[in-house]
Every structure is written in structure tokens, then in C-alpha cells.
User: Fold this.
Amino acid sequence: MLQAGRGSWYNTRMKAEIISIGTELLLGHVVNTNAAYLAGKLACLGVDLYHQSTVGDNPRRLSESIRTALGRSDLVILTGGLGPTVDDITAATVAKATGRPLVLNHSALNGIRSFFKSRKMRISAGNERQAYIPQLARPIRNRLGTAPGIIIEIRDKSIICLPGPPRELCPMFEEGVAPYIAKRFGRLDLLVTRTIKTVGMPEAGVNRAVRDLLELPPPTTVGIYAKLREVHLVIMAKAATRKLALRSIAGIEKKIRRRLGGIIFGYDDDTLEGAVGAILIKKKMTIAVAESCTGGLISSRLTDVSGSSKYFIRGAVPYSNDVKVKYVGVSRDSLKKYGAVSRQVALELARGIRTVMDVDIGLGVTGIAGPDGGTAKKPVGLVYVALAKEGGSVVKEFRFSGSRQDVKWHSSQAALDMIRRNI
Amino acid sequence: MLQAGRGSWYNTRMKAEIISIGTELLLGHVVNTNAAYLAGKLACLGVDLYHQSTVGDNPRRLSESIRTALGRSDLVILTGGLGPTVDDITAATVAKATGRPLVLNHSALNGIRSFFKSRKMRISAGNERQAYIPQLARPIRNRLGTAPGIIIEIRDKSIICLPGPPRELCPMFEEGVAPYIAKRFGRLDLLVTRTIKTVGMPEAGVNRAVRDLLELPPPTTVGIYAKLREVHLVIMAKAATRKLALRSIAGIEKKIRRRLGGIIFGYDDDTLEGAVGAILIKKKMTIAVAESCTGGLISSRLTDVSGSSKYFIRGAVPYSNDVKVKYVGVSRDSLKKYGAVSRQVALELARGIRTVMDVDIGLGVTGIAGPDGGTAKKPVGLVYVALAKEGGSVVKEFRFSGSRQDVKWHSSQAALDMIRRNI
Assistant:
């Protein structure tokens, strides 16, 4: 359990509450990632979130939830139910619960119209209906969808409605809601967080190295999270100013860096593929990838980085043995003698793609992603990752567990980490 | 938004509610997957879930939540806060809220002791404290952790407490809670769902085609969700037996298939890449992909399917123009005349990789994934997808919006859909 949120030293701070709307959430068809996203963002803004609740597409229960929330919180954020269909009840229910009838908002209508215009699509009556928002409310622009957000102020309280799809909700929060909260609710104690991201050491090992820091009392605490073969340490500091918070963070960060050094690949929003890209750009190096069992995933992750065309020259997914021989230069002898999933073939993939493409770094990956294709000697999850560069090559054997997608993901993490460590 | 939960015909059914406990949830450090898991399980058991809420590790707010829940629900499931530390407040708060003091439960203590014994570890005082549960409550065995679950019956209502870690909670629900609910609350109606997945038509279009079905009253309803460029229709039937539920579903499914025909690619857990793979296997066809802006994503998705080595021969990510010319056979003239992002180059990628690899289907993708690299004439999001096969080729222009990853994803959906429609 985290320690943050205990103690009484900030009881005068602003209280927020999230209400997630959608029967699909109550049926378990969808995991509520919006609640976690908003919770994290509110914490960073210095807003205390004390309640989150989910209700279905039911006006009576939603009304009750809104009333309860307004009774105990200063800021109520509603997500979902803003779509163009008759089931989307949020705007109408908020209107009723606050006594503010729905009226046509021209700024909202213009936003919806320009959304359709830019996509060369015809606007439907249902979408025009989305421009009706409660009286005296104001719309929040939605660049990526048709439903505008809604801000309603009732004396010293605010209700904010956002659409359910995360790709619409997230930018709207960043661009429209966060600045609004900061302005309306004035100076708040801030929670500043700093995430330190590591790869290549299991959680237990990282835990041992920083155990004392994980027990620090508030206002500055450290949490540990393992996720998709990375371990993240999150330093959280509460303070009156950003500067004060950053100062407490810096001291702890220094300790962590001293202890974990090389396994740290980045901070906060950094990704492993981004970190690898930054090193390649800095060293002015180019790379080509010949990946078999990962099937294009490493290339796809490397090219997720904007500007990757500067260093990423070519990805090859030589799935069949013939292609491995003909296009990447793997020898038929090695395939016969060692098998396609072998140290030797991984090395030849890496060296082959490097030579063929005349790049600085060649990466080769071969393995058994499963669930079929494993043998006693070569089980599912056996993966070889090799890297060729000027002056030599390296190759490593891994034994991963999990589903086909897990094995692919783990392999891509190992491959990206190998690039990072060897250039 | 889903329609289920409306209407009053099953108001006499049992009402459940989930309270998730943990400050880490309210700080957004953890996504609440337990709530979705439990919601899904309750739906299958025929239990209606009307509320889910989250509170931090705060006894006062948790007490309030428990009291509210008992006032409106028959079954209240609490998750989290059962650990051995002082922050774990669930057992004590439930004891107080129900007027049942904590007492040592010997069966719980034995469970905890045998957990430690089997792992050859010493039991701590904190863990022994976990054997104290409210009077007249009974423990639920936890095979994978130290915190026992708790079942408390108060007249005709039940409170069930489960530990937060999903790997402990899930088996405990299956083994200890599901049988309990079935027994205590008698024979319940089942909820059976059937998901029909479509691609290639916007949500508004699908909505128009099935609008009348979306308004069907319980016990058999239809919901619509748009997700990552797919539109899913979920048929939900409540009935006393699985057979009856399946019969109502079949009738509606038939109508939907008649109206949406070609845009349906699969059902329930089917994926688009899996559907494409199944067609390729059925037709005994092979495929190779030359993808530029998608950077390997299409190959990675195609190879996410177990057994894809039967049809997927090679993926190429010819990121630079030189590679496009040298290895896939795009002509320098076309690159010069039309630019790398053009109808012509997409076609040449598709035809080139098909010829070079001697496969049945060649797929070519080129576009501007952004956020940089766009121009007025060729904006970010402009993507060409081409397919070459015996007897001809097709190419389509798309204009996608969103982040670099969004554009890549949308392009991969369009490409997979093009394969599906053209073979």
C-alpha cells in the first residue's frame, strides 16, 4: 500500500471525484484505464482524489451519483456517455441534476462541424445533437472525435464531462481540463513525480537494491512497479512549490542512480525504443534488423519513434528458411547443423543484415514464440538475440515464459536492451 | 453505450456492488483490472452489478462506502487492504461497520501457517494478525498469498473481502466465491454474450444499420462499441439456461449477419489478424509484406497468430528509398515522379514483394505516420495501401488522424481488411 494520501497536513486541499459511466464497465467488457489516467493526472495537479465510482447507462443511478459527489467533492469528473446515440445519457442527466437545461452551443457545433469537414465526411443529426450542452456550460474542444467535453460551474464547484475513448479523453484533459483546474482552483500543494525506468534486472533485485528508499515516509515516497519486463521506481514528492518538490526528488534520484546505474534506460515518459533511438542519433549510427520469431515487432517499436528514419534503414522478417538464406545470407549449413533457432543462426542473421545493408549495427533474432513448435531440447520461449557491429558480435540465449505475444514482447525488450548496452 | 441494465423486469434479481480499496488506485499508479474481472464473473453468474467504487486506505471513507453499499445491494465485494501492514484497514473497518469484532479464526491461522510452511519461510507477527476476522465470518482459503478472504453474512446480505493482487483474487473467486454465490443466492439467470466484430465501416454507419436492434428491451439486448477502428456489436441474453440464451442470441445474430454481411470479420475472441490467417490457410495462399510507414507492425500482427509460418513468408520494412529500390523493386523513376508516399509506390511495393518472393499475395504500405514529415499536399496521416495478386492489384488512399502510433495502427487495420476482402 502506498503511503501518500495519509496524514492531515493537506486537509484543506481540493477534493475531486471521478464518475465513470458505461454499462460495458459494469459487465467487465472494458477495463477502466481512464480512471487510472485521470487519477494520475489529478495527483500531479495537487488535487486529492478520494472517490472513484462507476455506474451504468442508467439516468436514475447516475443522477444519484452526481448528487452524492457534489455533496462531498469540489471537482467532479464524469467520463463516458457523450456519444451520439440515445444511450448516451451524460449530458441530459447532468442537465437535469444541475437544473441547467440543454441548449445548443454554437462553439461546440462549430467544433463538430470542422471535425467532419476536415475528414470530408457528412455530419449526421446525431452528431449535431452532441452540440447541446447544459446552459451556462462551456464546451471543451475534441480534436479527435465528435463529442465535445463540458465544463459546468455551480457556485464554487465544477463538473467536467469527458468522452470515454482514451484517445479523445487524454488530449482533452491535457489541453482543456488541466489548465482549467490550475486556474480555477488556484495554488495547490503539488505532487511531483519522477519515474526512473530500468530494464534487465528482475523486480526482486531492484527491490533489494533500494529497499530502504521504498520505506521513506511522506511527503517524499518511492514506489516500485514491474511492468512488461521493465521495473519502474516512482519518486513522489508533495510540496508547496515545484522547486521544493524537485529538490527532494533530486536527492533520492541521485541515490537510486548510484545504486542502479547501467540498468536505468530512461525517465518519466521515455520508452526503451526512444532511448535506443536517442543513442543511435547521438552516435550517428545506423541499424538494420533481421527478426524471425518477433515477426516485425522490433522494427515496429524502433519506428514508433518519430525521426527513426535517420537511423533505421531496414527491417527484415525472414520467416522461412529460404528467405533467411537468400536475403539475409544465413548459410544452409548452419540451418542444417544447428537449426533455425540457434546461437549460430542468430549471429548470421545479425552479421548478414549488417553486411547486406552496410549499416553500423545488425540485429538478429530467432526463437520459438509458441504455443506450438517447441521440443524437449528447444522449448517454447527459447530465443537467441545477436548483435553485430564493427569489431565483433554478441549473442545471448533467453528462456521466456508466457503467451506467444509475451514471448515476442520479452524478446523485443531483450533486443532493444542489447542495442543500448552494446553501442 | 450498452443497453443492458435498463428496464425493470429483473428488479427482483440480486444486486451486487464492488468496492475497491487502495490509495494506489486513486493515485493512478495501478489500473483496476480486478473490477473488470469481477464484473465479468458476476455477469456470468447472473448477478447484476450496479455500482463499483474505489476508496483509499481511509477507514472513515471506507466505512461510509460499506454502509451505502449495504443500503442498496445484496452482495458487496471488497477488494484490497487485507495485507499484513498497518495500512491494511479492510478487516478492521468491516468489523466496525458491521458490529462484529475481530476474533482469531483458527482455520484462517492454519491456512496462513501452511502457506509459510510449504514455502519453508518463517511466519511473522503481521501475518498472524491476518487470521483475525470479524466474528461469525468465515475465511476463504488463499493458496497463493497470506491474506485469507472473508465472508460475512448479515441477515439476507453478504459481504465478501478479497485480497488485491489479481493472482490471489482470481483463483479465490473461482474456488471460494463463485460456488458460495451460486449456493447462497440460489439459481440465478445466466447472462450469455456474443460479440460480432466488424471492420471497414464507421460506427455511425453500423449504428444506422442496426439501430432497431440497439433498442431491444431486455432480456436480450444489443450494444455497440467502437474500438481501434473496429466496431463490435455485443448481443447479451439473460435466461434460465444457456440453451435458452443461445437460442435468443442466434435469432438476432442472423439479422445482424444479413444486414452487415461483408464487414463482419469474426466473433468473440477473434482478432482481425487471426481472421486473415484463417482465410489464407483455407485458400492455401502465401503472403509477403513490404511496409514502410507501419514499420513492421503489419508483419508483427500477422505473426501474432500461431501457425502463421504456414502462410507468412517474409516481411520487409524498406524504410529508406534505396532499400525500396534495391530489395523490393520500386523504380527510381516512380519515387522521383510521385514521391515515396504515393499510390504508385504503394503498388510497386506490393507487386515488387510479390514478384521477388514468389508469393500469392503481396502487400505494400507507404504513408506519413507523423508527427513530422507532413506537407500541405501530403499531410500527416496520408497512407496508401496496395495489394497485388494474380490477375491484378488494388490500391486505396486513406487519411488517418491521431498520433504516430494511431496512424500506424489504423494503417495496419486497413491493410489487414484489404487482404480479407480481396482473397
